[in-house]
Amino acid sequence: MQKKFYTKRQHYVPRFLLRNFSPDGRSISMLVLKTGKRVAGASLAGQCYGDYFYGDDGSMELAFGQEEAFVSALLKDTTINGLNQLNAEQLGKLRQFVHWQRARTQGMVDQLNCRTNTIFKSIMKEIMQNNQNLEFSPEDLDLVEMKLTNPQNDAIYYAAGALPLMFDMMVKFIIAPKGAEFIISDHPVTACNQFVENNSWLSRRRGWTGLAIKGLQLFMPISPFVSMAVYDSSTYNFGSPKSVICHAGKLDISRLNRLQAINAVSCIYFSEKFYQEELDIICSQRVEHRPARETEVSMGPLIWNSDGTGRQKMAITGVDLRIQGGFSFVRILDKKTYRKYDSDILPIRNKQLLELARRFSAHLDRKVEEGRAKRGHGDRPDGPPVSDP
């Protein structure tokens, strides 16, 4: 019997990030969202982990550990002077880190499982409508919940194929003003799209935060005073083009904290001095928002072919996080109305990178198939290829 990897407790939010919110490197203040209970001095090592979360062979755990060691060294000095010293290659490494961090959490696992469950039940309900001889009813579906067998690896596999879509994104650092602080959650990369949200025509569509979509913005706090931003530089100016630093106002921080709370799975973390009144506001805003990992499936009409087979369109949409305004440090460059834009999907940011991602994903599929064939397995590799924005 193969021995399991020695690290059982595998963290999906790196401890070096949480330590930046800790007074002593060992404890952290947190809010349990289900109960609203504030906990001071919670064990930092006991946060954001699962037993063998990435598997028991240690391959993914070691790979993420190496990346975390490199990134923590880059972010050791989060002062304005320290951040301004980062070069283009190092900023590229940080951009890649944000991409992986978005894909590797319990929040992404829950989202994939929710999507799988919703799709399964939507398909089964369609089958029931066209077949009255089944031995179970639509109500029986409520007693069943479909889950993926290995959603962590599915999410990471998808992220690997989609990595080229990040190549044109810019990295900057948002600095909190005096008297305001960032919070961080157990799913710390929030995705939004100020460009689409503020366009009355495009905002009628769904899927604002697909990796290939024009106007994508990603935010991840790295301390109570600094958040990293990864964004579409063809659509926005973030602060001055001469600096990687953007100075934010208190309303900006409040909006970014709101997105963190909505995006969280079960906990948010903060410095021990964070105001309780702010936490109360954040909790109420989370309750008012639609759950971040919900999925909707819309089925088109069933069209029968001459050979007796049928075809049907399926539209799968998630929840788009709304900023509810804008950010003072962001200027939208694209002022077009898009009233004549009639595509079913939102504008693509870079069609060349989308094609590159599709080819790269197909290459990964072939490599995995070759590996499985050598081991005597002919099954399709786990994880979805990049087939849409």
Strand order of the largest sheet: 7-8-9-5-11
Q: What low-confidence regions span 5 or more consecutive residues with pLDDT below 50?
A: 379-389
Chain-averaged pLDDT: 90
Q: What is the tally of beta strands?
A: 17
What share of residues is helical? 25-40%
Q: Strand content of the residues, in percent?
A: 15-25%
Q: Which overall shape is indicated by the principal axes computed on the Cα atoms?
A: globular
**What is the first-to-last residue Cα distance?**
42 Å
- Helix and strand element order: EHEEEHHHHHHEEEHEEEEHEHEEEEEH
Number of helices: 11
Explain the overall architecture.
The chain is of the alpha+beta class and 389 residues long. The chain is built from eleven helices and 17 strands. The strands form six sheets. It has a five-stranded mixed beta sheet with strand order 7-8-9-5-11, with helices on both faces. A four-stranded antiparallel beta sheet has the order 3-2-12-6, covered by helices on one side. A hairpin with a 4-residue loop joins strand 2 (27-32) and strand 3.
